[in-house]
Each structure stands twice: as C-alpha cells, then as structure tokens.
Amino acid sequence: MSLNLNKSINESITYIESQTPIKPKIGIILGSGLGQFAEEINNEIKIGASQIPNYPQSTVEGHSGILIFGKIDAIPVIAIQGRTHYYEGHTIQNVAFVVRLLARLGVRLLIVTNAAGGINSRYKPGDLMIIQDHINLMFNNPLRGAVFNKELRWPDMYNAYDEEVSSLIEKVGLQLKIPLKKGVLLASTGPSYETVAEIQMARKFGADAISMSTIPEVIVAKANQMKVVGISCITNMATGISDEILSHKEVIKIALKIHRKFHILLKAVISNYSGA
Fold first, then answer.
1. Domain that holds residue 124
2. Cis before 155? omega within 30
3. Among 1, 55, 84, 213, which residue has the fewest nearby CB atoms (within 10 Å)?
4. Cα–Cα distance between 139 and 49 in angstroms, integer?
5. CATH number of the domain encompassing residue 149
6. Would you tell me the crossing angle of helices 2-19 and 97-105 to the nearest 10 degrees?
7. Rounded to an integer, what distance in angstroms lies between the CA atom of residue 144 and that of residue 93?
8. What is the reported pLDDT for 59?
9. What pTM was computed for the model?
C-alpha cells in the first residue's frame, strides 16, 4: 500500500504544482454546507478534484470537489470543498488522502470543519463548537499498514486539537461576539443516523456532538506532525435529543444559515494566527 500510495500522491502533487505556484501554510477542510468560505480567499486558483490524478471523488451533496489555493491577509492557504467520506465506500486511506497531499504541499496547520449533530442538550442548531477532543467509533484507522513516507508509526493523540490555536479561536470569538461551545466530537461510519440507544451510549462516553467524518483526517495530520484545530457546526440535534426527523437537506440548510458568522470567525482566526 505504501509504495502505491506514494506513487499516487507524487502524481497528484506533480499535477497541482503545474497549476499553481502557491505553497499553502494553512489547510482548511470544509464540511457539509460550509464550502462558501472559499469566497473569502483572495487571488484564488481553483483546481477541480476530478482533474487531479488519483484524487478520490466525493459524491455527497454539499461537497463540490474543488481545491482552492489563494491568500487570506497575505497568508497562503488551501481550502478543500468536498471531503471524501468513509460511508461513500472509499477505503479509510482514501478518506485521509487529502491530508497526506496537504502535508506534502507544506501545510503546517490543518483546520477541520464539519456539520455535526448535537448530543449535549445545552446545544442548539446553529451553534459552533470548538473541538477539544474526539472519540473514534469508525472502528478503523488510516495509519494501518506499512508506514507511509516519514509519518510517525505511533503518533501521540494527546493535544490532538492544538490547545494554543483553539484558545486563539475562543479569543477571536469573544472579540467578535460570536458565541462558541467547546466539546468532544464522536465519529461513526454512517451513512445512517444513529439510534436513540446509540446516542445515549455516546452521551455516557462523554461526547457532545457526533459526525461521520473528520477523525481519520486528524489522525493522519498528527502522524505528519501538523497542528490541528477543529470547528463543528451543530446543524441538528441527534436522535432522541430532539423529536425532529433527521435529513441531510436540513443539515445543509442550517449550515448555510450560519455561514456568515462561520466565515467571519474563520477568516479572523487565520489572520491572527502567528505560526503561518
């Protein structure tokens, strides 16, 4: 797997570097309904994921499949519109393919975002949650197999979501008067939403929100010694927390409603980040 993956990523990098001279320092993976953040990027160069050799394609509504290179306040960035999900049938390695690509491009800070269901009863749809930690119930790990490139064999997941940069997000939120929650994200494979019993279990485990993505990306980022921070958009309350019938269309609808404050927050965080 390692040799084939290395060849695949080399081919992807060769194509990308033929399309843009930008060397991004910050990477942003945009969750369902949050892709409009790309509008905040200046001097943008867009590359369709379908044009990139070996790049796994997303089939999910709200994930357009575009890599956007550009700058935010002179900081070179790349935004990913269209993450790849495990439930689409991709291998766990392909789910994290984009992060290995970002590492090779020179990204040192990864900002992961997602749409998530609220488990904490104090949350409500439209809230933004700084991810403090996670629980992996996808029962798979993208680091399984031969060690890829110079990745760590046993990455330490302590401080998986960088406390210093997470504190910056909190500080910026206070300055902008954007209320933020802080909590633990649990990820399951999907694509079915969870049962009431499963959500009760997740609450007992200490989860505040639940999604079907993000964690494989974070694991690979840590193996590449990247800093990681995460923001979840609470787009619905999980099964049993609310009586509402869950649907992906509703998830997208709520994400689009809060996109303005999400954009303002994320842009300010990147502008104030001193490590780029």
1. 2-272
2. no
3. 1
4. 27
5. 3.40.50.1580
6. 60
7. 9
8. 77
9. 0.94
Q: Three-class SS of residue 180?
A: coil
Is 85 annotated in the active site?
Answer: yes
Based on the residue annotation, tell me whether 87 is a catalytic residue of this protein. yes
Strands of the chain, DSSP E:
26-30, 42-48, 66-72, 75-81, 109-118, 128-137, 181-188, 209-211, 227-237
What residue type is 145 in one-letter code? G
Rg (CA), the chain: 17
Q: Is 32 among the residues known to form the active site?
A: yes
What is d(CA 198, CA 18) in angstroms, rounded to the nearest whole number?
47
115 is catalytic: yes
Residues 126-158 as b/e (b if ≥16 CB within 10 A, e otherwise) read: ebbbbbbbbbbbbeebbbeeeebeebeeebeee
167 catalytic, yes or no? no
Active-site hit among 123, 236, 237, 255? 236
Instruction: Given the residues 8, 79, 88, 160, select the one marked as catalytic.
Output: 88
Other beta carbons within 10 angstroms of residue 260's beta carbon come to 10
Please give the pLDDT value at position 246. Answer: 73
First-residue to last-residue Cα distance in the chain: 32
Averages of pLDDT over each 10 residues, the chain, 276 residues: 81 97 97 83 93 88 80 95 91 95 97 96 96 97 93 97 98 97 97 95 98 97 98 92 77 79 95 84
**pLDDT of res. 213:** 96
pLDDT at 8: 93
Overall number of domains in the chain: 1
- Residue 17's SS3 state is helix
C-alpha–C-alpha distance, residues 262 and 213, integer Å: 19
Is 90 assigned a catalytic role? no
